[in-house]
Amino acid sequence: MSGRRLRGALSRLVAHPAFFLALVATLLVGCRWLSGGTVQILTFVLIAVIFAQSINLLTGLAGQISLGHAGFFGIGAYCSGILAKAHGVDVALSVPAAALLAAVAGWLLSFPAGRVRDVYLAMMTLGFGMIFYEIVREWNDVTGGTMGFPGVPSAALRTLSILGLPVDGVTYFQIVLLVTALVLVLMRNLTQSRIGRALFAIHVSEVAAGSIGIPAGATKQLAYTLSGALAGLAGALYAHLVGYLGPESFALPRSIEVLVISIVGGLGSIAGQVLSATLFTFLPERLQVFAEYQFIAYGIILTFSLVVLPKGIAGLLLEPPRFIKPRALKRTAVFGPDPSVLQREAGGGSLEVEAVTMRFGGLVALDEVSLRVEPGRITALVGPNGSGKSTLVNVVCGLYRPSAGRIAFEGRDVTGLSDHRIALARIVRTFQDPRLVPHFTVRENLLLGAHRLLRHSGVAAALALPSALEEEARQLAAVEAVLALTDLTAVADRTVSTLPYGTRRMAEVGRALLAQPRAILLDEPAAGLSEAEMERLAQVIRDMKAMGLAILLIDHHMDFLAELVDDVVVLDSGRVIYRGDISGMRRDPGVIAAYLGDEAVHAHA
Ligand SMILES: Nc1ncnc2c1ncn2[C@@H]1O[C@H](COP(=O)(O)OP(=O)(O)OP(=O)(O)O)[C@@H](O)[C@H]1O
Question: Which InterPro entries would you find in this protein's record (predicted)?
Answer without folding.
Answer: AAA+_ATPase, ABC_transp_permease, ABC_transporter-like_ATP-bd, LivM-like, P-loop_NTPase
